[in-house]
From TrEMBL:
It holds the Pfam family adh_short. This is Hydroxysteroid (20-beta) dehydrogenase 2. Residues 1-24 form the signal peptide. One of its GO terms (cellular component) is endoplasmic reticulum. The lineage of its organism: Eukaryota, Metazoa, Chordata, Craniata, Vertebrata. InterPro entries: NAD(P)-bd_dom_sf, Sc_DH/Rdtase_CS, SDR_fam, VLCFA-Steroid_DH.
């Protein structure tokens, strides 16, 4: 009996391993070989937080793949700059909407009005902010009363609000793609970035439930994990450094290709491997322990004090 049980367990594990390898092949190899026709979803893509970083990269890649793009951000000047670049380089139409997502529910009427006549096939809920520019205890959040509301309005509220504006017409047309940008920090709880980490798990859970509810209506909802431990750590050590590190065009291309092949996107192969390695090297019990949190906080302060110049904005700009 024991031998039979052992054989069965081994076979099941082998089957699971083979299945994961096939998924990995489909996601990281096949997806880069055959690109899906994104224009088939509809004429327009909407990207929130489209003036820099990941949002800008998505907007540019979607335009390259044949879609007209609605760019949403809070600076007219930066929006026009990105719009002009996309129009000149890819010959696609653009439309810009200037709003500040920290203002809460009052802005969505304006957005609804601006999007009214457009056939939107793809929505990228990218806008997001951090609450502190370094790893810190919750009580160290500067101006916490305002910051808590701002981050919840920006990272959480924007996702279902934008979705409820755009999803109904996608459902009517029987097709649509919604990409909700989450984070490695949302895949597991991360002390010292508590508020941010909590906002990102909201995005993952909301996306998974939405996907289950609407996949039969022809809608795909994806929460890319963006699982770059290195990138995210630097994101918190110094926002600008990580902006320079993580936004390679190939990363974005990979991610958009991956979308067609896998329900959960790890960003790209190296990010997915980093995520697996991180979960093995720093298991949950260790990451959540007081000892580890204190050690991490002290070490990061020491690194920042010592290598301030390495992570300085000036140095990144020079590079
Ligand atoms: N960076 C990483 O390593 C990393 C890793 C995982 C996940 N993420 C997630 O990816 C998303 C984008 O991150 P990123 O690093 O690309 O950020 P980023 O470079 O700071 O860009 C953020 C974008 O959002 C806009 N934005 C910020 N606050 C806004 C507000 N209140 N109202 C309107 N627009 C606003 C910014 O516009 P302005 O021009 O007005 O500033 C900018 O276009 C976020 O959701 C973040 O949590 C990032």
């Amino acid at each position: 009996v024991l031998a039979a049980l052992g054989g069965l367990t081994l076979s099941l594990n082998l089957l699971k391993f083979t299945w994961k390898c096939c998924c990995g092949f489909r996601q990281y190899v096949l997806s880069s070989l055959c690109q899906a026709n994104l224009r088939a979803y509809g004429q327009w893509a909407v990207v929130t937080g489209a003036t820099s970083g990941i949002g800008k990269a998505y907007a540019t890649e979607l335009a390259r793949r044949g879609l007209d793009v609605v760019l949403i951000g809070r600076s007219d000047e930066r929006l026009q700059k990105v719009a002009k670049k996309i129009e000149n380089k890819y010959g696609r139409k653009t439309h810009t909407i200037k709003v500040d997502f920290t203002e809460g529910s009052s802005i969505y009427q304006t957005i609804a009005h601006e999007l009214h006549d457009l056939q939107i096939g793809i929505l990228v809920n990218n806008v997001g902010m951090i609450c502190n520019d370094r790893f810190a205890y919750f009580l160290e959040t500067p101006d916490p009363g305002k910051k808590i509301t701002d981050i919840i309005n920006c990272n959480i509220l924007s996702v279902p609000q934008m979705t409820r504006l755009i999803l109904p017409r996608m459902v009517l047309r029987g097709k649509g793609l919604i990409i909700n940008i989450s984070s490695e920090m949302g895949l597991r709880p991360h002390p010292l970035v508590a508020l941010y980490s909590a906002t990102k798990i909201f995005v993952i859970n909301f996306s998974q439930c939405l996907q289950a509810e609407y996949k039969s209506e022809g809608i795909t909802v994806q929460p890319p994990g963006l699982a770059s431990f290195l990138g995210e750590t630097l994101y918190w050590l110094n926002h600008l450094v990580s902006t320079a590190l993580k936004h390679s065009t190939s990363f974005q291309k990979n991610q958009i290709s991956d979308l067609m092949y896998c329900w959960h996107v790890g960003g790209c192969l190296s990010h997915a491997l980093q995520s697996v390695a991180f979960s093995i090297l720093v298991p949950d019990w260790l990451r959540m322990s007081t000892f580890f949190i204190r050690w991490l906080r002290k070490s990061l302060i020491r690194i920042e004090e010592k290598n301030g110049s390495v992570f300085s904005k000036q140095k990144v700009l020079e590079e």
